[in-house]
Write a sequence for this structure.
């Protein structure tokens, strides 16, 4: 034991070390982020002006679909799995994850799945073109031939998430250092524990949905085909039963990260720790019983609409509590604005705005005008990009010194933040206007009155995209030649077991468990 | 000015110049730069607008309050200005207060939301019923009990879409035949689909409902103001999703009654026309117009189709082979493919013209002439 | 969860839809009881027909609407003609709107219970006998029954179609 990492490519293929696996998840998710971002650039370039300039509508539909799939399943979910892998054992004083070999498998099936999914773009008939939500019968009877590869990729990616979640639960429940009761766990660990339960509950449901699709397409069944006694609406119920908890899977770990960064840069403990835990658990529970708010226009009886409207509105209560707690953490703290804190503050503001538009969407009668328009697109980009992604970016800046023993360039970090912040808002704020004014989503082309906001949105997108390349540059340069740092506690206000180990973190940490008071 | 500065200036100016150019085309259209939903012309659209604004303003007030506290703190509690961190991290009273107040606010919001929703859902006691069927990629409107039915397809030409001709004012929002309904009448819509899920949306009427194959949804509208209102398909339905607008022409009751009477006469006239014999030139002209409108979305204006997806019309076994098979596939479609049965969508005149056009355009030159009566006979199984 | 989604959710969903009538799904053959006719009110029942996708039969109700008393058995006829040159089999799928009326709309005899084979050029009058339940909420005055006609010729020759009800 206690020898360093192996050499060469074998190290990465066969590693069972949570740090190595975390690193691979992070690089993989960044590559997917750039790929999904490329698809977004194609979309926004095409939508820069009315008319079809660059691509045909059919290919445009492939771009929107692949953008969604790659970003949701290839970028945002794996980045938090990467953070979980790197940080969870250190945060609870464990030497590694509970199931290190399964951890390796969970990662390595992902590049395979996404290579296969991306290759469908080059197949006859093209790649998936039915939206990342792949409603039947567009995704069954009318799907391109590559749909079976799409289904296979989803299965693999789901298996990866399930295995990863099992690992996290086993690790957190069994391997905490003596003295670390559940209510002493760091928030990032709590949010991931709860997220892991959500994943185990709903990824199999997604697998069920795509398997039913597979059977309808290839084996003559009629789950979603009215001709054989089935129902297209059944697909939507099964999908959204997965889909709604999925978005909470995407945001809860992000909440966890923010709950670390804000206290650090406020030099003050997190306000209301226990209510943060209860709020997270309530959000997770509520996420199971609101799915049909994605289906308000499908022909639901009034009673159902009212129930789902009320239940969805309820989620605002624990979510607001969290926002108030973060602000109370800052209040009367001693605040400094390093790059992680800038992203964390932007998260609080912009995620809250996304939360407000979410509340508006919950109002079922108003949803008659919002559903399937750019208003929805604006909403989910605010919560997923300015929410989740900003939080992941903040996490990278925050923990990068611990990972590689070098400090990133703070000025470049701040510049990258401001360009991202401005670029993001220029891209997505006008999309609220587009939706309200009447532009539907997944549109390759639009009526002339939508030209102005579309052009502005596209310009913002190019700016935002450029900022991500700057981020890549800063990270790579830091790892290769950043200023070395060696204090265990990189940040003055940082608390937690990860800040007690050396910087950079040794290959094996906590081979002996610490005692937590 | 340095070269760089000039380039930068041009880059910044370009969008402004572009917008200025467009400005002329839309100068009379007050909808540019719109930031909000329309109030619309029905009691439902107004109710929706009202609840939307209530929730919006509540959110704005909360945001100002919450962010105000945060921005204050970001300024006043800076370490760089000497702020020393306090140590509190709990306050049960505060937590209770900011849990209860939002909950109460939500209840307050839920009340008008509920009443607006009940309004949206009340399709009872309608004065007329219209069946709306979504197709890839057009709408069919059927006036129940009136024997009036027609397709409503996009008429924006490909040249405008592919930028070889300037875009007209109602680019991608103009159709061959709009839905016509009377003002001040409760109209019920029965909405379904032929193929995939579509969604029928008219923002000005406050009407949107999914069109699902195998099931019929209902919704309704009572339009106070005559006028032309334009909407869109709002559920991804394939490559033509952005190209199947919804256009409704709301007429005063008397004008509507005249229109309906005219439509019935016209339907009878078209049936008469089916017995007429047309020249090749007449059929080719009509055929090109009908083909570009109804077939080109898939088979393309140049007849080449899309490799691997939509067959080419040029020199194929169908378009240059047996005429009966050609007529059959247009009238009855081809099961298991995206080729629809156009027998129920287009008149015999249109179908005869299309088949004639397909057999003679793009160098096919079969010299075949198909008359409407041939189509009628085929439909009757002769 | 996977097995639940795959094997339990669809039948549960169907049962739920049938029992509650949500989604406009109507149930199977109805055996009428001698509850009598409610002559104090009438209900308008409309009929709508849709051909799915490439289905090209002529298919339409012979009357567009009837006015009935709840509890009264009424017969209407749909006309279908296979105007193509091949023998085909169709399946009509019913749907009722408003959805909360579905559980009060009973079909004692319906062509939608069976597959409909028609040879090339053949036409048929398809009967439907229905009763609107006496317990239909008084607020509902119009019921619309719609049939969507699907081409199941290929599925039938496969032998892979389950019989409905």
């Amino acid at each position: 034991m206690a020898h360093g990492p192996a050499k060469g490519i074998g190290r990465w293929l066969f590693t069972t070390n949570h740090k190595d696996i975390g690193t691979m998840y992070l690089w993989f998710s960044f590559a997917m982020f750039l790929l999904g971002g490329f698809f977004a650039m194609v979309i926004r370039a095409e939508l820069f002006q009315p008319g079809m300039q660059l691509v045909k509508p059919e290919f445009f539909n492939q771009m929107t679909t692949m953008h969604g799939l790659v970003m949701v399943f290839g970028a945002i979910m794996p980045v938090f799995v990467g953070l979980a892998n790197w940080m969870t054992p250190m945060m609870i004083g464990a030497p590694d994850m509970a199931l290190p070999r399964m951890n390796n498998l969970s990662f390595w099936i992902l590049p395979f799945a996404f290579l296969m999914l991306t290759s469908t773009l080059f197949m006859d008939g093209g790649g998936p073109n039915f939206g990342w939500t792949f409603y039947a019968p567009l995704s069954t009877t009318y799907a391109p031939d590559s749909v079976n590869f799409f289904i296979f990729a989803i299965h693999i990616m789901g298996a990866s998430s399930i295995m990863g979640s099992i690992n996290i639960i086993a690790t957190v429940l069994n391997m905490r250092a003596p003295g670390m009761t559940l209510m002493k766990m760091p928030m990032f660990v709590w949010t991931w524990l709860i997220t892991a339960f959500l994943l185990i509950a709903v990824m199999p449901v997604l697998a069920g949905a795509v398997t039913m699709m597979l059977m309808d397409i290839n084996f003559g069944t009629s789950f979603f085909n009215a001709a054989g006694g089935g129902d297209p609406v059944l697909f939507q119920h099964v999908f959204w039963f997965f889909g709604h908890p999925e978005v909470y899977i995407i945001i809860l770990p992000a909440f966890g990260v923010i709950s670390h960064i804000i206290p650090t840069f406020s030099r003050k403990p997190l306000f209301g720790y226990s209510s943060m835990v209860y709020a997270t658990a309530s959000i997770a529970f509520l996420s199971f019983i609101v799915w049909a708010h994605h289906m308000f226009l499908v022909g639901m009886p009034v009673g159902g609409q009212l129930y789902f409207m009320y239940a969805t509105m309820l989620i605002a209560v624990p979510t607001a509590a969290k926002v108030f707690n973060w602000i109370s953490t800052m209040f009367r703290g001693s605040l400094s604005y390093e790059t992680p804190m800038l992203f964390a503050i932007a998260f609080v503001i912009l995620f809250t705005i996304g939360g407000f538009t979410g509340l508006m969407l919950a109002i079922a009668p108003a949803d008659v005008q919002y559903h399937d328009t750019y208003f929805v697109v604006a909403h989910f980009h605010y919560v997923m990009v300015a929410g989740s992604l900003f939080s992941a970016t903040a996490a990278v800046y925050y923990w990068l010194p611990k990972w590689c023993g070098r400090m990133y360039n703070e000025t470049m970090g701040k510049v990258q933040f401001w360009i991202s912040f401005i670029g993001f808002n220029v891209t997505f704020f006008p999309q609220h206007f587009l939706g309200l004014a009447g532009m539907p989503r997944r549109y390759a082309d639009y009526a002339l009155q939508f030209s102005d906001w579309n052009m502005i949105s596209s310009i913002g997108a190019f700016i935002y995209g450029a900022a991500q390349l700057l981020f890549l540059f800063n990270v790579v340069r830091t790892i290769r030649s950043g200023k070395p740092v060696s204090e265990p506690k990189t940040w003055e206000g940082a608390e937690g077991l990860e800040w007690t180990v050396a910087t950079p973190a040794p290959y094996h940490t906590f081979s002996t468990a610490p005692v937590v008071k | 000015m340095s070269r760089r500065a000039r380039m930068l200036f041009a880059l910044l100016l370009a969008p402004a110049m572009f917008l200025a150019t467009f400005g002329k085309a839309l100068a009379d259209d007050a909808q540019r730069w719109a930031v909000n939903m329309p109030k619309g012309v029905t009691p439902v659209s107004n109710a929706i607008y009202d609840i939307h604004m209530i929730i919006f303003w509540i959110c704005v007030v909360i945001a100002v309050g919450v962010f105000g506290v945060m921005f204050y703190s970001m300024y006043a509690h800076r370490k760089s200005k000497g702020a020393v961190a306090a140590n509190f991290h709990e306050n049960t009273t505060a937590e209770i207060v900011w849990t209860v107040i939002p909950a109460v606010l939500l209840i307050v919001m839920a009340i008008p939301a509920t009443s607006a929703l009940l309004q949206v859902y009340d399709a009872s006691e309608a004065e007329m019923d219209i069946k709306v069927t979504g197709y890839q990629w057009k709408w069919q409107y059927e006036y129940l009990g009136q024997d009036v039915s027609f397709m409503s397809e996009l008429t924006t030409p490909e040249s405008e879409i592919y930028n070889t001709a300037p875009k007209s004012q109602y680019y991608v929002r103009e159709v061959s035949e709009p839905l016509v309904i009377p003002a001040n009448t409760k109209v019920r819509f029965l909405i379904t689909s032929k193929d995939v899920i579509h969604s029928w949306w008219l923002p000005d009427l406050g009407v949107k409902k999914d069109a699902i194959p195998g099931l019929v949804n209902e919704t309704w509208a009572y339009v106070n103001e005559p006028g032309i209102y334009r909407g869109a398909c709002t559920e991804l339905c394939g490559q033509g999703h952005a190209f199947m607008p919804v256009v409704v022409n709301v007429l005063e009751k008397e004008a509507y009654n005249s229109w309906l009477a005219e439509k019935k006469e016209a339907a009878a006239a078209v049936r008469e026309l089916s017995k007429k014999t047309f020249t090749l030139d007449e059929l080719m002209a009509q055929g090109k117009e009908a083909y570009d409108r109804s077939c080109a979305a898939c088979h393309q204006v140049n007849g080449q189709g899309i490799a691997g997806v939509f067959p080419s019309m040029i020199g194929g076994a169908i378009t240059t082979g047996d005429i009966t098979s050609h007529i059959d596939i247009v009238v009855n479609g081809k099961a298991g493919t995206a080729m629809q049965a156009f027998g129920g969508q287009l008149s015999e005149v249109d179908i005869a013209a299309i088949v004639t056009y397909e057999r003679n355009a793009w160098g096919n030159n079969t010299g075949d002439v198909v008359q409407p009566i041939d189509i009628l006979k085929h439909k009757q199984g002769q | 969860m996977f097995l639940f989604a795959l094997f339990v959710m669809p039948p549960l969903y169907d049962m739920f839809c049938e029992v509650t009538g949500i989604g406009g799904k109507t149930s199977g053959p109805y055996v009428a009881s001698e509850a009598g006719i409610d002559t104090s009110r009438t209900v308008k029942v409309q009929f709508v027909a849709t051909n799915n996708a490439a289905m090209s039969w002529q298919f339409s109700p012979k009357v567009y609407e009837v006015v009935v008393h709840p509890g009264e058995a009424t017969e209407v006829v749909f006309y279908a003609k296979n105007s193509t040159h091949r023998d085909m089999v169709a399946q009509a799928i019913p749907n009722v709107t408003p959805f909360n009326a579905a559980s009060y709309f009973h079909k004692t005899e319906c062509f939608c219970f069976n597959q409909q084979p028609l040879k090339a050029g053949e036409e048929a009058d398809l009967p439907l006998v229905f009763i609107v339940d006496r317990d239909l909420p008084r607020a509902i005055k119009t019921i619309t029954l719609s049939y969507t006609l699907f081409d199941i010729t290929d599925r039938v020759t496969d032998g892979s179609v389950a019989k409905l009800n």
